[in-house]
Amino acid sequence: MKLESTKKTTRTKHANALRPGLITAAIALACGFGAPANAAVSDDVVKIGVLTDMSGTYSDFTGQGAVIAARMAVKDFSKDGTVLGKKVEVVSADHQNKADIGSEIARSWIDRDKVDVITELVTTSVALAVMDVVAQKNRIALVSGAASLPITNERCNANTVHWVYDSYGLAAGTAKAVVKSGKKNWYFIAADYAAGEAMMNGAAQVVTASGGKVVGSTKHPFPSSDFSSFLLSAQASGADVIALANGGQDTITAIKQAAEFGITGSKQTLVPIVLFINDVHALGLQTAKGLTLTEGFYWNRDDKTRAWSRRFFEQAKKMPSMAHAGVYSSVMNYLKAVEKTGSDDAGVVMKYLKSTPIDDGLFKGNIRADGKFAHDMLLLEVKKPSESTEPWDYYHVRAVIPASDAALPLEKSKCSLVRQ
């Protein structure tokens, strides 16, 4: 008995002799995220690439604003622009909405410029192409602007996070609400590319599951400046709802032309599956009033979103879209992960991101095994001009769609990571 008591005393003395910093490090290592004494930052710099549409149909809600958002995140994270004592750099490029250009830039960035993470990535074809590159090169892709569900479904990989929204979440909000209101017969006008197909299919599934019916559909080339034939076919169908499964300037043009044909304000309801606040600004409230939509972020939701958005406005001269907010959030949380783990290794950072709740004032939720950042979405209605109290005050928040409803249930996922 005396011998055992002596052993306990000895162990206690040794434990007390440990420096507090070592105790903290030991606890952190036990949790799997210990920061080593010598930070494992490759090439002595953390480099972030913003790859987006700088000049095309999506440039208003992504574009240069995405670069501003990324740089804001770096500055807010560290006044001297460092993490673990290493410089953080932001580079940017225009992928021109072309997958081959996007993948070529991504490869060059990684091989020549040593870029560690690529963010934004509007346009599904570009996002999927860059996802393949980062998987091959063991880097990270943080997708904010692309909508396609396959990013975290059948095309998922361990190096990608889909940060803001996808076609399932948009349909789960808007389509379900519109069918519930009694508008059951739907006609789709979809862009002839992967995201358009995904948005249409996702919304169609929600429509039918909610008791509605798809009575017709047509596809238009991307980009398009004339929707007259597609809108006339939809009008002639007698559908309760004409749904637009496209984005950016295509959506803006289609809504404007629908108003010219007298569809807006008629018995038929025009429903854009994806619409950004920048699109509403371009349309004006007189044209956009009454539209129902789903977004992942609204600048005027609460004090935190307003404070951040007004700082963004000072630089961008417009309020942020949900894609802009997503770039800020993704870069901020990436840097936090590097700091907490002491490494910019893709596997280490991704492990931390997927195991740590996110609450940064703009988004709150968790990154799932499939790479989907599951957070609440907002069901919105565009205000009438008389209801808007200040510039960019465009939405009524009609409902908060919980993360559990806004993300594809994991039991329905085709992602290989879910089955591991």
Mean pLDDT: 90
CATH superfamily of the largest domain, called what?
Response regulator
CATH class annotation of the largest domain: Alpha Beta
Gross morphology:
globular
Number of strands: 16
- Termini, distance in Å? 49 Å
Tally of helical segments:
15
CATH architecture of the largest domain: 3-Layer(aba) Sandwich
Percent range for β-strand residues: 15-25%
Q: Tell me the count of domains.
A: 2
Key attributes of the depicted protein:
single chain; 420 residues; Rossmann fold; 6-stranded mixed beta sheet; 4-stranded parallel beta sheet; 15 helices; globular; disordered N terminus
Explain the layout of strands and helices.
Layout: H1 2-17, H2 20-30, E1 45-52, H3 63-77, E2 82-83, E3 86-94, H4 99-111, E4 117-120, H5 124-137, E5 140-143, E6 160-162, H6 167-180, E7 185-191, H7 194-209, E8 213-220, H8 228-236, E9 241-245, H9 248-260, E10 269-272, H10 277-283, H11 285-288, E11 292-295, H12 303-316, H13 322-341, H14 346-355, E12 358-359, E13 364-367, E14 373-375, E15 377-382, E16 395-401, H15 403-406
Parallel strand pairs: 1-3, 1-4, 4-5, 5-6, 7-8, 7-9, 9-10
Antiparallel strand pairs: 2-3, 11-15, 12-13, 13-14, 15-16
